[in-house]
Design goal:
Elements: E1 7-14, E2 43-51, E3 55-56, E4 69-70, E5 73-74, E6 80-81, E7 85-90, E8 96-100, E9 116-123, E10 133-141, E11 170-175, E12 181-185, E13 190-194, E14 205-206, H1 226-242, E15 257-258, E16 262-263, E17 266-267, E18 290-295, E19 298-303
Antiparallel strand pairs: 1-2, 3-6, 4-5, 7-8, 8-9, 9-10, 11-12, 12-13, 13-14, 15-18, 16-17, 18-19
Domain Phytase-like: 80-211
Organism: Chitinibacter mangrovi
Pfam families: Phytase-like (PF13449)
């Protein structure tokens, strides 16, 4: 789990170098030496701070942290934490794009941390003014509404398919000349390519192993490994059950994954662990019962 800092500090520095190192080609060697002028020490020109307890609108987050205490705040959090930036890009208007990573450090505990890029604007405190604050103005969420990702994600069955920290662990971000965004992920590892609004433009790009021709690099959390695939399926089924009012997580066995339910007091089996709570209004039409089952990588969905 990542330990979050108590605050984010962005600093401006002013420094000048009166000389540059130069190299010589053609096989000859040379050592660049500085002139007698002393290089000035970098000086702090401005400073701005974003408090750790900074949150943005969104679903409850941190439900899978076990009620731990972080810098005086107990999880879960009523909104989405902003902090935990791993990459920052400067915008032309003086604001910055700031990208948090996957949230809480693991695929098992970050399924309710939405992957976002925030636009933040620092008001640098300098010798001539400024209050040293940082304002989070807006954000985009990474999402896959066009179903380009070929493996299970947490919001697999939703319309927007917002990506979470259990799907990818993004650690780097670059902006292309056309305005699209590229992200480096550690769980695959993959490269992710989105438009300026965070919508995925193509399937996650695998990274090939240059030392082993024809093979790709895979981390322990890779979705094509047995363990990585199982955790993703469990996250997807749990999120789907919760969208129908589930209060408990579905129960899984080593050989099949089955969503059990309790609709209008009718049990799916005598020993069922219920993924859906009782529907109190028995006069209303009975909603369709849903089973989701995976067996040996084959999926079966049954409704009635």
């Amino acid at each position: 789990m990542h330990l979050k800092p108590k605050h984010l500090t962005i600093a401006m520095t002013l420094a000048t170098a009166p000389w540059l190192l130069t190299g010589c080609g053609g096989g000859s060697s040379a050592v660049a030496t500085p002139p007698s002028t002393t290089v000035p020490t970098p000086q702090l020109a401005g400073r701005a701070v974003l408090a750790a307890a900074s949150f943005a609108d969104g679903p409850v987050s941190g439900q899978y942290l076990g009620g731990s205490l972080f810098n005086g705040h107990t999880a879960p959090f009523a909104k989405q934490p902003i902090q935990g930036f791993s990459a920052i890009l400067k915008n032309a208007d003086g604001s910055f794009l700031a990208m948090p990573d996957n949230g809480y450090g693991g695929i098992e505990n970050s399924a309710d941390f939405n992957l976002r890029v925030y636009t933040i604007r620092p008001n640098f405190k300098t010798a001539t003014g400024g209050d040293g604050s940082i304002k989070a103005e807006k954000f985009i969420e990474l999402k896959d509404p066009n179903k380009l990702i070929p493996f299970a994600i947490t919001n697999q069955f939703s319309k927007e398919r917002v990506l979470t920290g259990a799907d990818f662990d993004i650690e780097s971000m670059q902006r292309a000349p056309d305005g699209t965004l590229w992200f480096g992920d550690e769980f695959g590892p993959f490269l992710l390519h989105t438009d300026a609004n965070g919508v995925l433009l193509e399937a996650p790009i695998k990274l090939m192993d240059n030392e082993n021709a024809g093979q790709e690099i895979r981390s322990p959390q890779n979705p094509y490994s047995e363990e990585g695939s199982a955790v993703r399926i469990m996250n997807a089924v749990r999120a789907h059950a919760q969208s129908f009012g589930a209060k408990r997580a579905p129960v899984f066995s080593p050989y099949f994954v089955q969503l059990k339910y309790d609709a209008n007091g009718v049990k799916s089996s005598p020993d069922a662990h219920y993924a859906r709570g009782k529907i109190r209004n028995r006069a209303s039409p009975r909603p369709p019962a849903r089973f989701l089952m995976w067996r040996r990588s084959r999926a079966l969905a049954i409704r009635w």
